[in-house]
């Protein structure tokens, strides 16, 4: 029998999936922090670092197991963060192809990096509180 969370009315996810979701946030955070601490931008390290790529693959592989629980929204949040960050990097690269667009490229890349950090921190804090992510 599935345990139901009385506050949300949703089934409680198995502890192993909760742990996996923490690991995925940790992998994303590790990739982003290597960009913060290294020479690369946060967003490029987030997108090209092996930990983040492994994390998004895990998101896709285990997404079906989270259906109907608050973890489903976290998996959706993590996947969207990855793909929208990729979109912003593409915009920055396109802007950076011209000398005139270089300042815009730097601003977009910096903004995307800060946005990625925000999404990781906000998602992880809500996971610790056992809350889902807003739509």
Briefly summarize what is shown.
By secondary structure, the chain is mostly helical. The protein has helices spanning 15-37, 42-48, 50-62, 71-96, 102-128.
Structural description of this entry:
The protein has 135 residues and is mainly α. 71% of the residues lie in helices and 0% in strands. The protein is built from 5 helices and no strands. It has one domain. Helix 1 packs parallel to helix 4.
Show the helix and strand layout.
Elements: H1 15-37, H2 42-48, H3 50-62, H4 71-96, H5 102-128
Helix pairs in contact: 1-2, 1-3, 1-4, 1-5, 2-3, 2-4, 2-5, 3-4, 4-5
Total domains: 1
Number of helical runs? 5
Q: The biggest beta sheet, please?
A: none
Uncertain ranges: none
**Which structural class fits the helix and strand makeup?**
mainly alpha
CA radius of gyration is 16 Å
What general form does the structure show? elongated
Average pLDDT, to the nearest integer? 88
Helices and strands, in N-to-C order? HHHHH
The amount of helix comes to over 70%
How large is the share of residues in beta strands?
under 5%
E-strand count: 0
- Give the distance, in angstroms, between the N- and C-terminal Cα atoms: 28 Å
